[in-house]
Amino acid sequence: MAAKTPVEGEPRFWHRPTPPDLAGLVTGLYGYAERGTPLAGAVETASLTVPLIINFGTPFRIGLGRQPSAHDRYTSFAAGLFLGPVMMDSDGDAHCIQVNFTPLGGRRFFGMPMTELADRMVPLADLCDPEIDRLSSQIEERNSWESRLDLVEDFVRARLMRGALADPALGWAYRRLLDTHGTVRIGALSGRLEWSRRRLVERFRRDFGLPPKAVARIIRFNAATEMARGSPRPDWADIAAACGYADQAHLTREFAELAGQPPAAWRAAA
Asked: SS3 of 86, please?
């Protein structure tokens, strides 16, 4: 586990890499403790992360695709996939554990159709899940971040191991999208499964929260951001071609929708 050494007053972070036996289901476990410095205008771009946040500090203010208002307050919650940026503020006293699931892991962990979490933040109280409620209380009782992360890792592992597996056909379709960097045609997926396109879209949306075309858009966008991060002076036309966009204008439109800003502005902020 790595803890960033912060400047005085800045938040502290703890990151526990994904245990090998949870690979493909979990992408990371994190601790986050604010020390008086609030978040202001933090932006999370569209991703394939299904987060569980257990906060025993003050609430975050979160807006989907927009700046949050004073009424958009969330303490502990789960969220599904969202085809757009998520904007967040805080008052400087949030303390939380976050588990990031993949779409496959989220479906298995929560044991519900992911349409119930997609495009929204769902407070833990609304999940009506006694196990997660008990975990939340136990986290708050622990007096160290290492102990909290140990507790959460054990809980997540046990719950995932007994959770229902995704439909193998849908798991194959999702992995095929990943393997092709989101460029495979949806018709090709449904044809390979011998399903109608409508059946694939409906089942995919139920189990992962978004239809396959939307998931493919996020995969391509994430590939583009990774390429841009790896270059001191990104060539956006080359990135667009490499990631399967029609042209640079297409890439720019996707950044506006999924990051909330044009590529160059996103790169400067990142």
From this structure: strand
